[in-house]
Design a protein that fits this description.
The complex is a heterotrimer of chains A (about 280), B (about 450) and C (about 300). By secondary structure, chain A is an all-alpha fold. Chain A is built from eleven helices and no strands. In chain B, strands 2-1-3-16-6 form a five-stranded mixed beta sheet. Chain B has a four-stranded mixed beta sheet with strand order 9-12-8-13. Chain B contains 20 helices and 19 strands. Chain B is globular, with a radius of gyration of 24 Å. With about 300 residues, chain C is mainly α. Helix content of chain C is about 70%, strand content about 0%. Chain C contains 15 helices and no strands. Classes of the chains: A mainly alpha (about 280), B alpha/beta (about 450), C mainly alpha (about 300). Chains in contact: A-B, A-C, B-C.
Chain lengths: ~280, ~450, ~300
C-alpha cells in the first residue's frame, strides 16, 4: 500500500513538473526552430530543410553584429560592474550604519525609480545627458541605466547583507578592524552570491533595454542589439522572420550563458527572500 | 601592439595636418537602410548624389546616417535633437510634420537658414506651388519635396470577374454604393474573403487618415479643415463614419481584424496578394514599392490581375469642389537643420539633390511622380496614367500645426466606429470634444449646429 | 528586539552610500522634480507650446479626471480599469500565486527535474523584451500559432487571441514572463524556515494544505508583502503589453504605462505625460501602504 502511494506520488510529481515545464517552454519552442528554417512561418515545425544560412546572413550585417558583440557587451558589462559595486556598498551602509528611516528610504527609492525609468522621464534624462555632453556615448547609456537600476539593486542586496550574522563583524571590530577592512574582508566574501544575483539582474535589464539607448545614442556604430534587431526589416516594414529570429537567438544566448554560469558557480537565489 | 597604436596615432595626426584646411563635413539622415526600408534612397545617395557632390566640392565629406526604425521613432529623435540645437545638417522629413516643428521653432524657413542663395535657386521655377507647399508652413518654405503621390482604389480583376461584377477588366465605380455593391458580390461568391479595404483605426497611423478617412470625406464635399476652422461636426463626417460602419460592422465587407490588430496594414497587403481582398484604397506607393515582382507582397501576374480605379465621391458630383472623383496627396522631402554649422554648404547639397540631373537619376532608382516639371515622368503607363487622371483632382492635407494631433483623433474616431464600440454619432461627439480640447473652441466649427 | 551595537559609524555609512546617492540624485531625483514641475505646465516637444510653455496649474490633472470622458476608450479612467485588471490577474494572481506554487512544489526537493523547471521559468524572465514579444506573437498567432495548434490537437476551436481576448493575452503573457521573480523570492523565503517547524507539523499529522496555510504562509508573510509591493509596482510600469498589442485593439490593452507613452512620446505632450506619471506614483504609494497596513494589522512584527 505504501509503495503504491509512493509510486503514485512520484508519478504525480513528474506529471506536474512536465506541465510546469511545458507552460514555460511552449511559447519559446517556435523561437528555437524558426531560425533554422529556410522559409518564414509562424507555426511550429521541425525545420525542413534544416539550414544555417540565416545565421550566415545575420553575420553579414556588420551593424547588427557589432551591436551585439561590442556595443551591448560594453553597455551591459559597464552598468553591471557599476551597479553591483555601488549597490553593495550602499546596501552595506543601509544595513550596518545607524541611518534613520532607512527602510522607508530603500522602498521610496524603488518607487521613484519606477516612475523615472518609465517613458515620462526620457526627456529630462535626454536633457541631462545632453548637458553633460554625453549624447551618443556608451558612458551616457551606462550612467542612466546605473541610476535607474540602483534602487532595486540596493533593495535586493540589502537582503543578503542583512542575513550576514553581525557577530562576525562585531568580533572583527573588537580586534580593531577598520570599517573598510571589515567590509572588504568579511562582508564582501559572504555576499558574493548576492552580488552575482544583482549582477545578472542588472545585465539582463540593460541587455533588453531599448528606450534608453534609443534616446541617447545616434551613431549606428554605437547602438546595442536591442535597437539593431529592428534592422532585419523589409522595405515595407515587416520583420524578416527568418533573420530576426536567428538574430534573436544569438541575442538571447549571452544572458542564458551568464545565468547558467552564475547558477552553477554560486547558485542563483535571493538570500533570505528579501525582507521588507 | 603598442607599436601599432603609435603608428596609427601618427597616421591620424598626419592625416589631420595634411588634410586641406578648408575641409568641411555634412551629415544627412533619412529613414532609409541598405537592404531595408527605402533602400533605393540609400543607393541613390551613396552611388550618385554624395560622390558627385564631393567631386564638385573638394574637401567636403558627406556622411549618410541610415535610420532603420519607424517613422514615429525618427520623428522623436528629430524633435529631441532639434530641441537642443543638434542633429544632422540635411534631414529627410515627412511633409505633415513641418507645421508642428516650424511652430515649435525647431525648424526655420530655408532662406532664413541659408540666405539668399535659396531664393535665387533655379529649381523653384520648375516646382509647382502645390508641390512646394508640401513642406511649407505659414507661407514660408521649409524644405524641398521629393515628389508627390496620389491615391486610388486598387482592385483584383480576376476576383471581381469571378464574383460577377460587371466590367471587371476596367471597373470604375461612380459612387460609394457601387463599391459596396461590388463588395457584396465578392463576399457572396467568396464567403471567407474580406473584399474591401479602406483603412481605419489607430494602428495604421497616418495611413488611416490619408488613405482611408480623407478619401471618403473628400467624397462628401468636405475636408477636416475648412475656411480656417476645424470641422468637428458635419453631415460629411457622419456619412463617412456610416460608410465605415457599413463596411466593417454591418456587412463585414472588410476585415475588422485587419483594422484593429497591431500589424494590420501588412496583413491588408498580404490579403490583397492572396486574393482575399479584392479592392484596396492606397497610394501609388502600393504599385511602386509594395506589389512589384520579387517583393514580399508581390501580386502574381500583376499586369493581368491588378487594376486601378478612381475613388468615386459618395454620389456623382458630391465630392470636394463638386467633383465626381477624389484623390489625396502627401509627400516627403528634405529640410535644413537651422543649427547647421555649414548652412550654405548644406543648402548647396539640398539644391544639388533636387537638381534636374540628380532627379533624373533618382527616377532610375525609384520611378514616381517627380516634383520638378523638367524631370519627365518615367515611361511607365501606370504612373503617367494615374498622374494625368488624379493630379487635377487631388487635395493635400492642411499645413496647420494641429494637423498631426487632429489626425490622431481622426484615427481614433474611425477605430471607435469600426470596432463597434461607438455609433457614428457617439464617435463624432467624442471627436468634437477631443479636437476642441486640442485646438480651442474658437478654431472649430460645427456644421450641424444651424 | 535588543539594541544592536553599531558596526558602521554614521559618517562611514554615508560615505559608503555616497556614490549610489550621487547617481540616484542625478538620474532619479532630478528627473523626478522635472516631471513634477512639468506636470503643471503645457510644455510639449513640438508645436507652439514647445517654444512658449505656460504654467497651467492643475489643468493637466483635471483633464485626466474629466468625468465626461473619463471612461471612454483611450482615456485615463478606462486605462486605469484595464491596468487594475492587468495588475490583479497577471501580477497578484498570476505571478505571485504561480511563483508560490512553484516554490512550494519544489520545496525541499533537489535534482534535475527541479533544476530544469526552475531554469525554464527563469529563462522566461531573463530573455530580452523584443525577443519575448516575437515569440509570443508567434505563439498566439491565429493561423499558425503554437497555442491554437495545441487547441486544434485536442479539438478546441481556434481563438483569435490578440483580437478577441487581448486583455487575457497580455495577462497570460505577463504572468508567464515574471513568475520567476516570485518563485525565487519564495524559494529563498521557504529555505529560511527552520526544518524543525515542519517536522513538528508532520508529527502532528497536518496535511500539505494545512501545513502551507497554518505554518508556511504566516512565516513568510513579510516576504509575501515585499513580493506584492515589488511586482505590483513593476507590473504597473511594465511596457511589455505594448510590444504584443500596441495598446489595441481599440485601446483594450492600453495600460497606463502605454497611455503615458502615447501622451509623452507620440503626442509629445509632456504636461499630460508627466501628470500621468505623478498620479501613477501616488497610486503605487497607496498600494504599498495598503500592503504594509495589512501586514501590520495581521499582528506582530518580525
Amino acid at each position: 500500500m505504501k509503495v503504491v502511494s509512493h509510486v503514485l506520488g512520484r508519478m504525480a510529481f513528474y506529471v506536474a513538473s512536465a506541465v510546469f515545464a511545458a507552460v514555460f517552454a511552449l511559447p519559446l519552442v517556435w523561437l528555437v526552430f524558426a531560425p533554422f528554417g529556410a522559409k518564414a512561418k509562424l507555426s511550429v515545425a521541425l525545420p525542413d530543410p534544416f539550414t544555417l544560412s540565416n545565421f550566415g546572413k545575420v553575420f553579414a550585417n556588420t551593424f547588427a553584429v557589432r551591436a551585439l558583440f561590442q556595443n551591448s557587451i560594453i553597455q551591459a558589462v559597464g552598468t553591471m560592474l557599476l551597479v553591483t559595486l555601488l549597490a553593495t556598498l550602499a546596501a552595506y551602509a543601509l544595513s550596518r550604519a545607524p541611518i534613520r528611516g532607512r527602510d522607508a528610504l530603500s522602498y521610496g527609492l524603488v518607487l521613484f525609480s519606477s516612475i523615472v525609468t518609465g517613458t515620462a522621464a526620457m526627456v529630462p534624462i535626454f536633457l541631462l545627458i545632453f548637458n553633460m555632453g554625453l549624447i551618443d556615448t556608451h558612458m551616457g547609456v551606462i550612467l542612466v541605466f546605473t541610476g535607474g537600476l540602483l534602487p532595486a539593486a540596493i533593495f535586493i542586496m540589502r537582503d543578503f547583507v542583512d542575513s550576514i550574522p553581525r557577530s562576525y563583524e562585531e568580533s572583527a571590530l573588537v580586534a580593531g578592524a577598520s570599517p573598510w577592512g571589515m567590509f572588504r574582508d568579511i562582508a564582501l566574501p559572504i555576499v558574493r552570491p548576492g552580488m552575482m544575483v544583482v549582477g545578472v539582474w542588472t545585465f539582463v535589464n540593460v541587455w533588453g533595454g531599448f528606450l534608453v539607448p534609443f534616446i541617447l545614442l545616434r551613431s549606428p556604430t554605437k547602438m546595442p542589439a536591442a535597437v539593431a534587431i529592428y534592422s532585419f526589416y523589409t522595405e515595407g516594414g515587416t520583420p524578416i522572420i527568418t533573420l530576426t529570429t536567428a538574430y534573436a537567438l544569438l541575442y538571447t544566448l549571452p544572458v542564458l550563458a551568464l545565468y547558467l554560469f552564475v547558477n552553477w558557480k554560486y547558485g542563483f537565489r535571493f538570500f533570505g527572500g528579501i525582507k521588507s | 601592439m603598442k607599436k601599432r597604436i603609435i603608428a596609427l596615432f601618427t597616421l591620424l595626426v598626419l592625416g589631420a595636418i595634411m588634410s586641406p584646411a578648408f575641409s568641411q563635413s555634412l551629415s544627412v539622415i533619412c529613414r532609409c537602410v541598405a537592404g531595408g526600408a527605402n533602400s533605393n534612397q540609400v543607393a541613390w545617395l551613396k552611388e550618385y548624389v554624395i560622390p558627385e557632390f564631393e567631386k564638385a566640392h573638394a574637401g567636403v565629406s558627406v556622411t549618410l546616417n541610415e535610420f532603420g526604425g519607424t517613422d514615429d521613432a525618427l520623428k522623436q529623435q528629430y524633435a529631441l535633437d532639434l530641441s537642443v540645437g543638434k542633429g544632422n545638417d540635411v534631414m529627410g522629413f515627412d511633409g505633415f510634420w513641418i507645421p508642428e516643428f516650424a511652430s515649435g521653432n525647431l525648424l526655420k524657413p530655408l532662406n532664413a537658414v541659408a540666405g539668399s542663395a535659396v531664393d535665387s535657386w533655379e529649381g523653384w521655377n520648375h516646382i509647382a506651388p502645390g508641390i512646394q507647399s508640401i513642406l511649407s508652413y505659414g507661407g514660408e518654405i521649409y524644405g524641398v519635396a521629393n515628389g508627390t503621390d496620389v491615391r486610388m482604389i486598387f482592385y483584383r480583376k480576376d476576383i471581381l470577374a469571378q464574383a460577377g461584377v460587371a466590367n471587371a477588366d476596367a471597373w470604375q465605380p461612380t459612387s460609394w454604393a457601387d463599391i459596396a455593391d461590388a463588395a457584396a458580390k465578392v463576399l457572396a461568391a467568396f464567403p471567407d474573403s474580406a473584399p474591401l479595404q479602406i483603412n481605419a483605426g489607430t494602428s495604421m497611423g497616418e495611413a488611416t487618415t490619408l488613405q482611408g478617412y480623407y478619401m471618403l470625406l473628400l467624397g462628401t464635399g468636405e475636408e477636416p479643415f475648412m475656411d480656417g476652422k476645424w470641422v468637428v461636426r458635419s453631415q460629411g463626417i457622419l456619412d463617412t463614419l456610416n460608410f465605415y460602419r457599413e463596411i466593417y460592422v454591418d456587412h463585414a465587407y472588410g476585415s475588422q481584424r485587419v483594422q484593429l490588430i497591431n500589424d494590420g496594414r501588412n496583413l491588408s497587403f498580404a490579403n490583397f496578394r492572396d486574393g482575399k481582398t479584392a479592392m484596396l484604397v492606397e497610394g501609388d506607393y502600393f504599385y511602386r514599392s509594395v506589389t512589384p515582382a520579387g517583393s514580399e507582397f508581390a501580386v502574381e501576374n500583376r499586369d493581368q490581375v491588378m487594376g486601378w480605379a478612381k475613388m468615386p465621391s459618395e454620389t456623382p458630383g458630391s465630392g470636394i469642389r463638386g467633383q465626381d472623383f477624389v484623390s489625396a496627396s502627401g509627400g516627403t522631402g528634405w529640410v535644413l537643420n537651422p543649427n547647421s554649422a555649414n548652412p550654405q554648404l548644406a543648402w548647396e547639397f539640398l539644391a544639388f539633390m533636387n537638381s534636374k540631373a540628380a532627379r533624373d537619376v533618382w527616377m532610375t532608382y525609384q520611378p514616381g511622380i517627380p516634383a520638378r516639371d523638367d524631370v519627365p515622368v518615367p515611361n511607365n503607363a501606370f504612373l503617367t496614367d494615374t498622374a494625368a487622371a488624379l493630379l487635377p483632382l487631388t487635395v493635400s492635407r492642411p499645413n496647420n500645426d494641429f494637423y498631426a494631433k487632429v489626425s490622431e483623433q481622426i484615427q481614433l474616431m474611425t477605430e471607435n466606429v469600426v470596432s463597434g464600440q461607438m455609433t457614428p454619432q457617439q464617435a463624432m461627439d467624442a471627436y468634437a470634444a477631443a479636437v476642441t480640447g486640442i485646438v480651442g473652441a474658437d478654431a472649430t466649427v460645427d456644421l450641424l449646429a444651424r | 528586539m535588543h539594541e544592536r551595537r553599531t558596526i558602521l559609524p554614521l559618517r562611514t555609512g554615508l560615505l559608503f552610500l555616497g556614490p549610489a546617492a550621487l547617481f540616484i540624485g542625478a538620474f532619479i531625483l532630478l528627473p523626478f522634480f522635472w516631471i513634477a514641475g512639468v506636470s503643471f505646465t503645457n510644455r510639449s516637444l513640438t508645436g507652439i507650446t514647445a517654444a512658449n510653455p505656460q504654467f497651467v496649474g492643475l489643468q493637466n490633472y483635471l483633464k485626466l479626471f474629466d468625468l465626461s470622458t473619463f471612461m471612454n476608450p483611450g482615456q485615463f479612467g478606462s486605462s486605469l480599469v484595464i491596468t487594475g485588471q492587468f495588475v490583479f490577474w497577471s501580477a497578484i494572481v498570476g505571478q505571485a500565486v504561480l511563483g508560490l506554487v512553484l516554490a512550494w512544489f519544489f520545496y525541499r526537493r533537489t535534482g534535475w527535474v527541479k533544476e530544469s523547471v526552475q531554469t525554464l521559468a527563469i529563462v522566461a524572465w531573463i530573455i530580452p523584451d523584443v525577443v519575448v514579444a516575437f515569440a509570443w506573437n508567434a505563439f498566439l498567432d491565429y493561423d499558425g500559432g503554437t497555442l491554437n495548434w495545441l487547441f486544434g490537437l485536442v479539438g478546441i476551436h481556434k481563438v483569435d487571441w490578440l483580437l478577441a481576448m487581448p486583455l487575457l493575452s497580455i495577462i497570460l503573457f505577463n504572468a508567464w514572463r515574471g513568475s520567476a521573480f516570485s518563485m525565487l523570492l519564495f524559494s529563498s523565503a521557504l529555505g529560511s524556515i527552520p526544518p524543525s517547524y515542519l517536522e513538528t507539523a508532520d508529527v502532528a499529522g497536518a496535511g500539505p494544505w494545512q501545513r502551507l496555510k497554518d505554518i508556511i504562509l504566516p512565516l513568510i508573510r513579510t516576504h509575501i508583502v515585499t513580493d506584492l509591493i515589488l511586482i505590483t509596482l513593476w507590473t504597473f510600469n511594465t511596457f511589455g503589453p505594448f510590444l504584443l498589442t500596441g495598446g489595441g485593439p481599440a485601446f483594450r490593452t492600453e495600460v497606463v504605462s502605454v497611455l503615458t507613452y502615447r501622451m509623452a512620446f507620440k503626442y509629445f505632450d509632456f504636461g499630460t505625460g508627466s501628470a500621468l506619471g505623478m498620479v501613477m506614483m501616488l497610486i503605487n504609494l497607496g498600494f504599498a501602504l495598503v500592503y504594509l497596513g495589512l501586514l501590520r494589522r495581521q499582528g506582530g512584527s518580525r
